Amino acid sequence: MNLDFSEAIESLRGMMNTAVERLPYIVAALVVFAVFYFAGKGVRSLVRRFSMKRKHHQNLGLVLARLSQGAIMILGLLVALVIALPTFKPSQLIQLLGLTGVAFGFAFRDVLQNFLAGILLLLTEPFRIEDQIKVNDFEGTVEDIQTRATTIRTYDGRRVVIPNSDLFTESVIVHTAYEKRRLQCDVGIGFGDDIDRAKKLILEAINRFEDVLEDPAPDVLVVGLADSSVTLRARWWIMPPRRADAMDASDKVISEIKKTLLSNGVDLPFPTQQILFHDQTEETDGDRSRQREGWPAGNGEAPRARNLAGALRYLADHLPNAESEVHSRFAEKKR
């Protein structure tokens, strides 16, 4: 079998000649692309600098800077391809993208959804970089807002990447949306304690700290009657409202409230239960024929009062007879 390499060599020689002929155009295309590349970086820097000077929509400015750089680079690539390859036409590429647009949309539906949600988040700005937010089970400081996802740094030093579609559809708590933040804690005092005096002592404890704001002023409210205590709710405001400041203020204020109440003789009761023996109630304890706790009045005569010693004596007198009756009934069943 005779192999003829003449045609292959001739084709290779033609390709080399064509490459040499197109070399100046390829160099020119690379130069043009480099010009567009550096122009895109310059436009990105200008847009970022302009957006940082504005108070609102700073995050949107950062994203627009990236998008403008990408658009300029794509335009530079198309111009470079036209210069290097004379047979290339941008309309062909656009037509190809149009034909594959439907398939592309189905394949990257989630990506496009997150992209649109990211643009809307950047336009509306419900939160910004360095804000502290809570989304579902995740809570931390916003590090970056991109077109696809938002990155937050948790308080224990972990990074969480949350898709923008979740941030757009779920409820988001922004802890640092305002300059001030209200903190509160519930304190239980005894039913026999003076409520007004306890309120005064709690306010004195809260006002000892400089971190607590005078306006709005702290307050103490009665919010409920628990099983063993009267519940008072102490409320105070701090600034700035960041997590570390809130934890530090809560630690100081709650500790001082406990020390102040105990040092002034205010009871901080723990849960207790009271058992009432109704037939041992004193004669003078109200109308015994009326309804009492767990004791229906009934239609008959109300039971007479009996002290504990009398109740034990009654059981001692009747217990032997009760035991003998039980033994006799048990013996009858065995028969």
Structural features, described:
It is a single chain. With 335 residues, the protein is α+β, with helices and mostly antiparallel strands. It has four domains: 91 residues, no CATH class; 49 residues, Roll (SH3 type barrels); 83 residues, Alpha-Beta Plaits, CATH 3.30.70; 61 residues, no CATH class. The chain contains nine helices and eight strands. A five-stranded antiparallel beta sheet has the order 4-3-2-1-5. A three-stranded antiparallel beta sheet has the order 6-8-7, covered by helices on one side. The relative contact order is 0.06. The mean pLDDT is 78.
Short description:
This protein has 335 residues and is α+β, with helices and mostly antiparallel strands. It has helices at residues 6-53, 58-84, 90-99, 101-107, 109-124, 164-169, 195-206, 243-263, 308-334; strands at residues 132-135, 138-145, 149-154, 159-163, 172-174, 181-189, 219-225, 230-238. The strands form two sheets. A five-stranded antiparallel β-sheet has the order 4-3-2-1-5. Strands 6-8-7 form a three-stranded antiparallel β-sheet, with helices on one face.
Main sheet overview? 5 strands, antiparallel
Q: Taking strands numbered 1, 2, ... along the chain, how are they ordered across the largest sheet?
A: 4-3-2-1-5
Distance between the amino and carboxyl termini: 119 Å
Mean pLDDT: 78
How many separate helices?
9
The number of distinct structural domains comes to: 4
Number of DSSP-assigned strands: 8
Q: Structural class per helix/strand content?
A: alpha+beta
Q: Name the assembly state.
A: single chain
Return the string of H and E elements.
HHHHHEEEEHEEHEEHH
Any idea what the shape is? elongated
Bin the strand percentage: 15-25%
Low-confidence stretches: none
* Rounded radius of gyration (Å): 41 Å
- Into which percent range does the helicity of residues fall? 40-55%
